[in-house]
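Entry for the shared binder. Reason: the reviewer on the internal report wants the predicted structure included alongside the sequence.
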Amino acid sequence: MKRILLVLMLVLTGFCAQAQNKLLAPKIDSITLDYRSSGYALDSVDVVYGANENLRPSGFNLPEFGLNELLHQRDALGANLAGFNYLQRQASTPILISPLPYIGFQYSFGGSLTQNLDVQYSQALSPKTLLNIHYNKKSSDGFLRSSKYAVNDVNAVLIHRNKHYSTKLDAKYSAYTWSENGGMSEDSLLQDYIISFTPVNKSSAESTVKKADISWENYLNLSGDNMIKTGFYQVTRYEVINRLFTDNAPTQLTDTFYIDSNRTRDQYQTASIKNGAGYFFSSKYFEINASVNHRYWSNQNLNRYFDTTEIFLASELYAGFEKFNLHNTFYFNLVGATGEIKNYTRLQMALPLFDLNAKLDINNLYPTPYQRQHYANNFQWKLTSLSPQQIITLGGDLKLKGKLNTGVGVDATTVNNGLYFINNTWRQDTLNTVSAVRINAFVDYNLGKLHLSHNLAFNLNSANFNFQPKVISSNRIAYKTPIFKAAKLKMNLGLDLQYLSEYNSMLYLPEMSLYSPLTGAQSTGNYVLVHAFAAIDLDPFRLFFRAENVSSLWNDARIRVDEEYPIMPLFVRLGVSWDFFN
């Protein structure tokens, strides 16, 4: 298996991929005066600026064991209904390039003091220097008891380019705090009382996560040619993540204690520093770089330490023409995690009858430091041998051209030798090979002033992994019209109708903020959700309203989205966006 993966990597890498920074390539403005926050049209702002709330906790460590790929939901309406809640790994902020200073402001608020603030600032400090700053804050008192959360992300990027030297400084910082209630202890009050009366398993538990990620890239161009640039580059990157879990009443929900039965304070921190150097070549249609890198990481867990030194190869390539783009990134570990591989390929093609997007992701990954060994009050483990898991994802979508916007998409993920937290430890001998295939078809069309969107998805999973609905139907009906003859004031209102078929629930472990696949799990799903929305556009000002889970007025309040977590009640949100160009 390892040899096959290595051959595939070398073939793909030798062919083509994307140099994602592209600092030395000619740039054009990515936004103009008609750009609106996040780049979305009026008919999508209620979803983009205020994603659906649900009662699932964070799932912070979910990406560490392949479930994020397996549970990936590609919902055309943006509602990740069978996925997880507000805390995912922070994505890189898109870099906005504008000749004028730009501020994009979005704010929404709703019940239980729920707020969502998003601000992005972009300015060309000089013809050769660009600054981008992005800040996002989400907070709420929660809807179940003891479910308060606060999430803060900030990202600053500074880019300077000239003929012979270019540099990029990218800094991210995140601070997250959320209460860990462990879900409902019983649901008898849900039918007759508001959800905040329902008792929960934990009343005084809390998780705090802090993350920092700082990278600095430098490029030295040795070419005097304006069209072709070549030379050497260097990159330094520092990353740190710290998690703290506290519980003043640890006897709730568990009876296993390794340290203290009166109070829990679990903590770990993983930090790494990377330095790399290599060669790059850049032209109008083709870019490539390749580097040798050294990384040192250290893990501290309740004053226990272990560390590792790694040496790895990395490369990025790009080939692009007017109607064709092929991107690839490649990583291969030589020392420290020998044989570990990551290769991500993206293809975009604009053909006469349709547009095609395709991807191929290949991973051969060893356990993370957190998975290798961990000491806590209620859970302890140490893996005696380290074996990599193989995760392969193949997918894409095809969109037909014409007045009717329609197309199909496929995503297939296979996890071999997967690492899952089962029976209080990380195991690779329980689920064996897991496969998940998602096939979806979508169509958007207009009937006069009515705009209709339909997305039908089928999830075909292996028998050992039935944790997502087999059928998801998402439909949006919107009425769009100008309010006055001048058409400067526009309105959009309508309904979202969504159906989820049955799926098996997962077990959430608040002490570690992770999900565990259950054998003999309860079946849930098989319900319809209805949301109402409205939006008004008075350029460049937008106001939106969204009533989520209107269907809770008639749905059974005891429906579970996962083990011990009920369906979200009615939630009303108001929001505004405003774009400023100086």
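Summary line for the report: Residues 1-21, 23-28, 59-90 have pLDDT under 50 and may be disordered.
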